[in-house]
Amino acid sequence: MSEIEYFYSAHSIFAYLGSARIQEIAKASGRNLVHRPIDLNQVVPAGGAASFKERTPKQRAYFFRREIDRWSEERNAPVMVGYPTHHYKDTALCNGMVIAGVVQGHNVDQLSHAMLQTHWLEDTDLADPDTLARLAESVDLAPRPLLDAAMSDEIQAIYQANTDEAIKRSVFGSPTYFADGDMFYGQDRLEMVERSLRQPYKPSGDPNMPPA
Amino acid sequence: MPEIEYFYSAHSAYAYLGSARFMAIDKAAGRTITHRPNDLRRLVPASGSTPFSERSKGHYAYYFRREIDRWAEERNAPVIVGRPTHHDKDMTLCNGMLIAGLVQDKNIDQLAHVMLESHWRDDSDLADRDTLVALARQVEMDPEPLLVAALSEEVQAIYEANTVEAIERSVFGSPAYFVDGDMFYGQDRLEMVERALRQPYAPSRTN
Fold it and tell me: Over the stretch B152-173, which tens digit does the pLDDT of each residue have?
């Protein structure tokens, strides 16, 4: 089965806002969603984007409040008021848990969705093993094998490889979707992902356009 | 009649890609477009966005080629291969010409559209007077009064005021649309503009 590659982090707001929709699109097109969790703390600066903390108050007000709220309404994906308490904690464990699920042959769609949704709706702490255990149980996955593997060398090497590959392939942030090699950055491109699966966009003639 | 405020520059790729769609949305909603051409080269750095010259190669390939090409297909708005030859010229005259049209009480919707379209589809030089004359005639406007006023103090003061106000109101680039105070940045938000005209999005709650 052909696939859609999905680069994101389990704590990413825009991955959350697009989460139900990408899964629906993948399902409708008969594609396998290939989860590739990445370390956003490495990918965002490497992509040349300003880190969240470097953005101006006006940018934050627009991109991290107004846009979140409007898209939340648009996607029917409710968010909490304010910013998640535990948002700046290390994401190696939760992203590692998703990768462990993939390595152990599970479908991680629902686990990933539960992480994203509870972080942004219920203010969950995705660095806390008990919280993650509860989330796995809520989607009928046994938490232990996943949590035991999450920080292993094998899984963390995949996490780093995903991150390195994202940087190499010009991923700017989370979420980013690849449909047959064509990159779509942002959940606001999901309708274009859907269209592209039906009919790919024409290739670009001049990939090396000089600076504007 | 209520309005939609439209901040852009006459040479902007994304303003072009959204131009026909925006006008169709506006017309269907029975609103007036309030054109606010501004100086993008001052606006972009002032808004906190990374200046074009500092963006990475990957950024260019995505935002200034792949995105343009896909949206051109999506919006049925053809673009030239490569980058417009005259893209780095001074845009004071063409943006001033649009503002002169407003000051002289003309509807400039079509003039704005043909500037954007000819620059990105036909590689036109928007700093060239003869080109601007031909574009005005194409939309059945008398070019002379517009070009005479374009660089006047009155018109240039409005251009400056538009730029300052855009910066003040958090416009990050071109195009940006305001519907009843709600800002939508980018032509990729036009479907949300359309929805906001039908039913405004709920206000954001603060902490």
Answer: 999 999 999 999 999 999 999 9
